[in-house]
Every structure is written in C-alpha cells, then in structure tokens.
Amino acid sequence: MTTTVCTGVSAAAFPSFTSYVRARGPVLLRTARSLTSNACDAEDLLQTALTKTYLAWERIEDHNALDGYVRRALVNTRTSQWRKRKIDEFVCEELPEPEMVPAPDPAERQVLRDALWRAVLRLPDRQRAMVVLRYYEDLSEAQTAEVLGVSVGTVKSAVSRALGKLREDPELGHAA
C-alpha cells in the first residue's frame, strides 16, 4: 500500500508515521473496507483518514493508541461523506418506469428450441458439425477448424451456408 500525503511537508519528516502506515496499513484498509461498498472507496477513505492523522501527528500524545485514532478518523470521515451525499430529484410528468414486457412463455421457448434443433439435424453432416461446435459448444472458428481438421476459411464458409439454410427453414419461418 503506497501512501502519499499532500501537505507540503515531506513524509520523511515523520519516519515513525511511514513505519506505522507500512505496518498497520493492511489492517486499517480492512477496517475501511468494512465501512464502504467497494475497494476503491475504502482506499480513498483510508487515504483521507491517514492524511488527517499525518496532519495531527505531532499533537498525538499516545502513539500506542494510533489504531484507535485512525479508526475514529475513518468513521468520522465516512459519516461526513454520508451526510454530504447529494441526491438529485427531477420532476417529470411521466415516471421513467420501464415498460412491462411479459416474460416469454416457457412452453413457447421450448417449442422454438425443439424446432431449431430439428432444423440443425436437417443440415448436412459437415455443416451440422460446424454449427454445433461453433454455437452449441462455443468454440472459436480456429478451434472448430482444428477439431475438424479443416481451414478457418472452410469453417467460415460452411457455417455461413448453414446459417442461410436455417434462416430459410420453413419450420423456423415464424421465429425470424
């Protein structure tokens, strides 16, 4: 964890601060992470708390209680962020609700899947093999070519012809 404090005073001015951050940084980051919703916010929160600690370093009398000081800075900083959070509201005539689209009927989806599979089974063996490998097995064109021992160009042209046949299949005509 790298900590840079922008105060005009070099971090080398307080080597004990640098040592403290190196030693306790991971533990303090876990604490910050528990106060925020994501890792980036936790890093920012810890950075801010460490900056406040650095600025007060000479005033902190008991360096054995630094963890408590930094944790209090973390909590106070996070609380301030919550309070400052701005929520914009916009008045509009219509609510921006998404239009309710009914979910497709599972039976109709199954009928379409069955029709598609029957159409794939009607393809010539080589085209069927390429379509199955490309779209059912999710292989790339190069992987399909390697499995079948053909060139990538052969796969491209055969799959293109097979898709054309599927588009023209009368049983799938209503799905297009």
Automatic annotation (TrEMBL):
Annotated RNA polymerase sigma-70 region domain residues: 21-86
TM segment ranges: none
Limits of the RNA polymerase sigma factor 70 region 4 type domain: 114-166
Top-level division of the source organism's lineage: Bacteria
Record keywords: DNA-binding, Sigma factor, Transcription, Transcription regulation
Pfam families linked to this entry: Sigma70_r2, Sigma70_r4_2
Assigned protein family: Belongs to the sigma-70 factor family. ECF subfamily.
Protein name per Swiss-Prot or TrEMBL: SigE family RNA polymerase sigma factor
